[in-house]
Structure formats: structure tokens, C-alpha cells
Design brief:
The protein has 298 residues and is an alpha/beta fold. The protein has 12 helices and 9 strands. The protein has 2 domains: 97 residues, Helicase, Ruva Protein, domain 3; 177 residues, Rossmann fold (3-Layer(aba) Sandwich). α6 packs across α12. GO terms for molecular function: ATP binding; GMP kinase activity.
């Protein structure tokens, strides 16, 4: 007679698949914290909101060691100081433990808050392949009240790109002239190869009319704009996850292996700069992300 306590083979297989999927999701979340795609506070919020989720099932030891600069020794000291058992899962923390852990995170890695007195000059930046151009194009198509700046660049046009609409394509001599004449609000060399810059005139005219100007630029350019105009509103576009960012970069098919690896290294550094920005928007859906950026720009 079969043992009724033994689960059918199909149930064991399904349970095994679910366990593997859960481990992968937890590994992805830890990678997102390590790569600074999400903050430790954001992962904790997800865990507390859904204790049965992958975030909620993560052990507090795993959580802490996913944070850059926290190794096992430091992790154990933190848990002892906070009075949290190492076997605890994030979703199972008690009220006192939640408050203690939240306070520790906020004291060491405070999440940025928007500055006061921001202007209608809005800068949209983010890591390579995060989809800045796609989000900016959606804003241009669906929010005509917002002026999307057209950058100048020394790189060659990609298929489908139109001069004066997507970029002003110029050679190095013309780019040098624009810099010398003070006609660029910002300019930078991206990936050590091509130069990009924002023509100053159209932006100044739009702002003088009381309208909103949106600049879709790289991190170097965003920092230059902030230095030139400290009141500029800075928006950092984030990928849904690190794995998704890698997938998008590979999916573009416009770079070779060496170029792709170099851009990924650059992206890691760019993600670390998000603390310098007023707002962070996750590009998990283009229309939703564009609407959020547009709401910030108003």
C-alpha cells in the first residue's frame, strides 16, 4: 500500500522548480543591491510589504552581504549590535528589528531627496542601454508641452537616425568651433570615443518662454549642467534589474564583445552616481516611465 504521506513525483518536481525559481529571484535581487540598481531600503520595503515574496524569504545575512563593503565579519557585528538573529528572514523581522535595521541603513546610506528651488531645466540621465532615448522619444510624442533638446555629436548616424531630428551630426572641427564659441551648454566624450553636446541657444529660448526643456544626456553632461545651473532638475533612469540591463545591452546588437564589456563596466560606475540626482525613475515600462518623468518636469 502506498504511503499517503509521500507526495506524488509530479508534486516533488513542481516544488523543486519553484525552489529553484525562488533562489534565482533572490540571487537577482542581491545582485541588484550589489550593483546599486535598487537601494537596500527598497529591498527591505519589498520584503516587509510581501513577506512571502522572494525578498521576504531572504535571510538577513544574505541581505547584508549583498550591500557593497559589508563582508561576513562586519555583517555579524551589525546583527549583534542590532539584536537580530542571523537565521531571521527579512519578511519575518519583528517591529523593533525592522526599526533598528531601517535606522542603520538610513544612517549609512541615506536615500536622496529632491532639492528645493528646482527649475524647468530637466536633465534625464542613466547608465548605458537603460533606454533614455526611448523614454525621451515617448515624452516628445505624447507631451508636446515639453521641449526635447537635440544634441550635437561627432559619431556617425545609426540606421534610421535623421540629422536635426535625432542629433545634429557634426565633424570634430565643427564641434571644436561650437565649444570655442560657447554655444554648448555641456559637452562630453562618451566611452572614450565620440563627443556629444547640448546646443545652448534653443534651451535658453525655451526657458525664457516659461516652458520646460528636457535634456537626455550622459552622466558627464548631467554633472556639467548641474555645475552651470545648480537649479536644474536631475532625473536618473534605472533599469528594472541588473540582469535586464545586461539583456538590453546584448539585445542592441550594435556593439562587439569588447565594447559590450567596457560599457558594462561603465554602467556599474554610472549606477553608483544615482545619489547625485533629485529623482530616480525605473524604466520597467516605457509609457509609465515617460509619464513619471513628465510629471517631474511640470
Amino acid at each position: 500500500m502506498a504511503d499517503s504521506r509521500t507526495p506524488p513525483e509530479v508534486d516533488r518536481a513542481a516544488a523543486s522548480r519553484r525552489a529553484v525559481a525562488a533562489r534565482r529571484e533572490r540571487a537577482s535581487l542581491k545582485k541588484d543591491v550589489a550593483m546599486r540598481v535598487i537601494s537596500p531600503q527598497e529591498l527591505l520595503r519589498r520584503a516587509l510589504a510581501a513577506p512571502d515574496s522572494a525578498a521576504g524569504a531572504m535571510r538577513v545575512t544574505e541581505f547584508l552581504t549583498s550591500i557593497p563593503a559589508i563582508g561576513e565579519g562586519k555583517r555579524d557585528r551589525i546583527l549583534a549590535d542590532l539584536g537580530i538573529s542571523p537565521v531571521k528572514r527579512l519578511g519575518g523581522l519583528g517591529v523593533r528589528q525592522r526599526v533598528a535595521l531601517q535606522g542603520y541603513l538610513d544612517a549609512r546610506w541615506p536615500e536622496p531627496a529632491p532639492r528645493e528651488g528646482r527649475s524647468r531645466l530637466v536633465v534625464l540621465a542613466g547608465p548605458t542601454a537603460v533606454g533614455k532615448g526611448t523614454v525621451a522619444a515617448h515624452i516628445k510624442a505624447h507631451h508636446p508641452e515639453i521641449h526635447l533638446s537635440v544634441s550635437a555629436t561627432t559619431r556617425a548616424p545609426r540606421p534610421g537616425e535623421v540629422d536635426g531630428e535625432h542629433y545634429f551630426f557634426v565633424d570634430d572641427a565643427e564641434f571644436d568651433r561650437l565649444i570655442a564659441a560657447g554655444e554648448l551648454l555641456e559637452h562630453a566624450t562618451v566611452h572614450n570615443r565620440h563627443r556629444y553636446g547640448t546646443p545652448r541657444g534653443p534651451i535658453e529660448r525655451v526657458l525664457a518662454e516659461g516652458r520646460t526643456a528636457l535634456l537626455e544626456i550622459d552622466l558627464q553632461g548631467a554633472r556639467q549642467v548641474r555645475e552651470a545651473d545648480p537649479s536644474a532638475t536631475l532625473v536618473f533612469l534605472l533599469p528594472p534589474s541588473w540582469d535586464e540591463l545586461v539583456s538590453r545591452l546584448v539585445g542592441r546588437g550594435t556593439e562587439g564583445d569588447e565594447e559590450r564589456a567596457r560599457r558594462l563596466r561603465t554602467a556599474k560606475g554610472e549606477l553608483a552616481a544615482q545619489q547625485e540626482f533629485d529623482f530616480r525613475v525605473v524604466n520597467d515600462d516605457v509609457a509609465r516611465a515617460a509619464a513619471e518623468v513628465a510629471s517631474v518636469a511640470r
